[in-house]
Amino acid sequence: MRRALSSVSRVASTSSAPLLGSAALRSRAVAALATAVEPKKISVREALREAIDEEMERDSRVVMLGEEVAQERVVDTPITEAGFAGIGVGAAMSGLVPIVEFMTMNFSLQAIDHIVNSAAKLRYMSGGMYNVPIVFRGPNGPPRAVGAQHSQCFGAWYSSVPGLKVVAPWNCNDAKGLLKVLHLCSAYVVLAAIRDPNPVVFLESEIGYNETYELSPEAQSKDYVLDIGKAHIEKEGSDITVLTFSRMVGVALEAAQKAAEKGISVEVVNLRSLRPLDLDTIVNSIKKTNRFVTVEEGWPQCGIGSEIIALANEHCFDFLDAPPERITGADVPMPYTWPLEDEAMVQTQNIVNAIERVCYRNTTNQ
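RE: above sequence
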């Protein structure tokens, strides 16, 4: 079976490193490094490994639990997701900073009581007496030809739960910066109570693990972090906005390039964070282009696109020049055979067709 992380390349000493003093100091350190190094091309898998490795080196309270991983603070567990997720929640309540890795997020369903009813609710139900600084991470979305039970997107599932934060990176900068900030925020909360202590669900595209991207000079700094709840405009445009996340960002950029050949200027917004959503960036982009399409690999009903369209109706309805559209995976269990799976998954042309329809360039393409 495919695994999210082959191994952590090295494990840190058992002494805690001091935390960074301030956001300003971190910014100066990142800027200094950015002038001294060149971008490097690595896979998303390697970016995730770098983030975990550096945070384990920084803070000896960071531990990792999962199946088929073992080395000092990287704890091999039995094949019992409910068991090691529960251990992770208890460890977080006791002062550690656990990273719980699921071999696939589909298996997180075995542990969903600990995620939804323990981790997400304990801080609220204890009146703030208990923090649960924990990260639940693993491959999400269709990985190709593994059947319906292993091919689901959990973005909408977990982002509906108060008390959780949910992020979904696309490229290497996303993966490293978002994963590190999760651990940094956990560490700060326990020691200084200056960052958000909520548990985080970290959704990684399984198809995207081996995709390579440039890791920017800034992201090569051990102090590089990205803020949860902040989207990123990957491509500016003037005619229509495409709002998406994870692997679909790359597919949307391909669609934007094809649309440009037909004279349509597309703005592509990488949401990065699904809970909280970056409402300001979403609304401002829609107000700018007056049209939008949402794209996700999950099912249409109660999806991320549904939420964004509801928010648009509430916050910028009068700016819309056309009804928005959702592009999602087909509303069926994922087929196993590759040709049928292609039909069920979002393809570049699906997005191009939606862009054309919303821009009233073509009203017949599906």
